[in-house]
Design a protein that fits this description.
With 272 residues, this protein is of the alpha+beta class. The chain has seven helices and 13 strands. A hairpin with a 3-residue loop joins β12 and β13. α1 crosses α2.
């Protein structure tokens, strides 16, 4: 009962910090997860009741790892309320991380049930229907997120916040070496960072397979229609005071998002 209370208390603190937009320095020592298993147990409570639309992988590159102070990938979950589409406006009020990340996104066309034996890359790719480009806008409930450590970051849903989903790539991308594709991120029309698909665990397809096997080990089934975003290509880019972000991948198109540091004004008519 004591362990259950610890996980529930930690989850409730994280949920409350998100709802109130009042971040904490870190979780209180008495409820901090001590390992990855405890971190993911808290994450599952935090995300309970929300259907996962996008699975995210954090820290798949050295730049991404340095940004949050860890040395290996972790996974998080995004529900429908966290998803934006190209051209939408993201409200950045209260966002502590103030960063944008360019990422490759895979869309499943077949289910991938949890099982005892690991999935191979080719097997996973046979269940992928489409490739997209995305922009992640992460955030944390911790003021000291770079010092939180892996278990606490996992509990905080791996800094999942908002994700901008681009259109399906309209070419025969399966013939390409995605790892060599150049990715460019622009802040207010100025080039801010460039990277390659290889920044995501050496190849976005390898990162995708890591996520599939990670969820399988947690006895979580993946479903047709879900997405996996595979981690930052280039550097996590500061966006404080920026108004527009655009990501381009050579031959694959672009995705963009407007940023606002004000809450949208709701008219009396809309409230009626």
């Amino acid at each position: 009962m004591l362990m259950k209370n610890k996980f529930q208390q930690a989850a409730e603190l994280l949920i409350d910090a998100k709802i109130r937009a009042e971040p904490m320095s870190l979780l209180p020592p008495s409820v901090q997860p001590v390992n990855l298993t405890e971190g993911y147990r808290i994450q599952d409570i935090v995300t309970a009741g929300n259907d996962t639309v996008v699975w995210k992988i954090a820290a798949t590159s050295k730049a991404g790892q340095n940004h949050i102070g860890i040395n290996h990938p972790i996974a998080g979950q995004l529900s429908d309320s966290c998803i934006l589409y190209s051209g939408d406006t993201a409200v950045m009020v209260g966002n502590l991380m103030q960063a944008a990340e360019a990422e490759f996104v895979f869309e499943f066309s077949s289910d991938l049930p949890a099982r005892k034996t690991p999935y191979e890359v080719d097997e996973v790719m046979s269940c992928v229907g489409h490739l997209r480009i995305g922009i992640e806008l992460p955030d944390s409930r911790y003021q000291l997120f770079a010092k939180a450590g892996t278990p606490q970051l996992v509990a905080d849903n791996a800094c999942a916040n908002l994700f901008v989903l681009g259109s399906r790539v309209d070419c025969d991308w399966r013939k390409d070496d995605i790892a060599t594709k150049k990715v460019s991120l622009y802040v207010d029309r100025d080039l801010a960072t460039e990277g390659y698909g290889s920044d995501a665990l050496g190849d976005p397809r390898r990162a995708l397979t890591w996520l599939v096997n990670h969820t399988s080990e947690r006895q979580i089934d993946l479903s047709s229609g879900q997405f996996v975003t595979t981690g930052v290509c280039g550097d996590p880019t500061p966006v404080r005071s920026a108004a527009h972000i655009r990501v381009e991948v050579e031959g694959y198109g672009k995705v963009e998002v407007n940023l606002s540091n004000e809450y949208p004004v709701v008219s009396k008519k809309e409230n009626a």
